[in-house]
# Entry
Amino acid sequence: MKAIRVHEFGGPEVMKLEDVPDLQPGPSQVVVRIHAAGVNPVEAYVRSGSYPQKPILPYTPGTDAGGVVMAVGSGVKGVKAGDRVYTSGPNSGTYAEQVLCGEAQVHRLPDTVSFEQGAAMGVAYGTAYRGLFQRAEAKPAETVLVHGASGGVGTAAVQLARAGGMTVIGTAGSEPGLELVKKEGAHHVLNHASDGYLDELMKLTDGRGVDVIVELLANKNLGKDLTVLAKKGRVAVIGSRGPVEINPRDAMGREADIRGVTLMNTSEQEFKTMHAALVAGLENGTLRPVIGQRIPLVEAARAHVEIMKPSGAHGKIVLVP
Ligand code: NAP
# Structure
């Protein structure tokens, strides 16, 4: 099969398409033929060598895919050859034609959902779910700000919060991004590139502030976030690309919480809960992953350039083998 291989850390050009042996499932394992692979910013950080956890070289990047089960190992009961599935956190990289997964990492993809949408599920929806529910404990009737709502995680958070009965305010940095966020379910949209947009937020909440912030760029926003939280408000910090200064007094008066989010810290039981909820959302149509760009697998380097652009996000980028 073909797979992207990385033999040295560096720029996007270190990713090369190569021939590698086909995969065989061991006991309790599943091999999936990949129809689309999701692209996430973390894969660019890892490839560059700047991420704290480094894979052993050479490796194949990627943790998300949508496809069809090719073969199952002994003891696998939940899926069989021919089933449509998405996988997240498999044992081998998904920038490839095939991927090896543990049975618990394979989830059924409803017939109404495309393979590309399946490839958008794991990291983006998993992280949005963890941030919103498992870490920030968002509840129906609360008000949620998705600060960076136009990308993979942000669109997922908007759909999850809307389906969960919250009032949703989403931000984007471009007109197409704002339109997308509104279309995906935000009650109100604000442009994070405009001066004074957080004053608008306070007007939208009658001066009360928001209960939960899902923060995708904390190094720019965390200090300001603490000033627009309601009492007992929670910020779920999902994305940050550097340090930031905060005034602790903004948190003290509100008894506000800053809660870090790392998908990798999710326990086995929490993953089970998360994916049961996500598959249900796909089935009932409240979750509809947005695919912004489809890029051929051989052009994985271009996908990494696109995912690291500072603005202009529009849902997920997927690689198509
Ligand atoms: P993405 O699809 O590239 O989206 C990036 C988002 O950030 C876009 O909505 C973009 O909006 C927004 N943004 C740009 N400038 C902003 C600003 N000043 N304020 C608020 N938002 C701003 O990336 P993604 O996959 O959604 O991931 C987003 C971040 O979460 C990344 O840093 C990623 O590494 C991190 N992440 C963390 C975890 C975890 O486990 N903690 C898991 C997944 C992702 P415009 O383009 O419209 O300006």
In short: Residues 40-42, 123-124, 127, 147-154, 171-174, 177, 192, 216-217, 220-221, 238-239, 261-263, 307, 311-313 surround NAP (CB under 6 Å). The first helix runs from residue 41 to 48.
